[in-house]
Amino acid sequence: FVQRTEWSLQLMTQRALEAESNMEKLKQEIFILQGELESSKVENENLRAGQTTDPGAVKHNIDFALQNLHKIIMGANWSIRQLTSGAESLHFVAEVLKSTGKISEVEAEKD
Questions:
Q1: Domain map (residue ranges) of the chain
Q2: CA-CA distance, 98 to 26, in Å (whole number)?
Q3: For the segment 41-97, what is each residue's pLDDT rounded down to a tens digit?
Q4: Which of 19, 33, 42, 70 sits in a 20 to 30 Å window from 79, CA-based?
Q5: CB within 8 A of 93, min separation 6: which ones?
Q6: Rounded distance between C-alpha atoms, residue 32 and residue 39, angstroms
């Protein structure tokens, strides 16, 4: 029983470390996405400042802005999914650790 518990703890520790690693990667991804968002905002401001009446240029600018916005949205959605997955993994680890603690208490009471 103790060996199974130790193995479970090692597995949970590994999962927790992987979740932490994923969280760090996601933080970096969010930082990058925030930079891209700021760049898009600046580009948007520049486009507004140099507004043109040429329909072709307007369409090009709109297409460019939509492409950047789509990339930002896709990245944000991916980051949210990763954060949710990491949080669920951490919640699972916490529940298993809590259960393990209860099992240890029961075992101690038996002795």
A1: 1-52, 54-110
A2: 27
A3: 887 887 777 765 567 777 887 888 888 888 888 888 888 888 888 888 888 888 887
A4: 42
A5: 12, 15, 16, 19
A6: 11
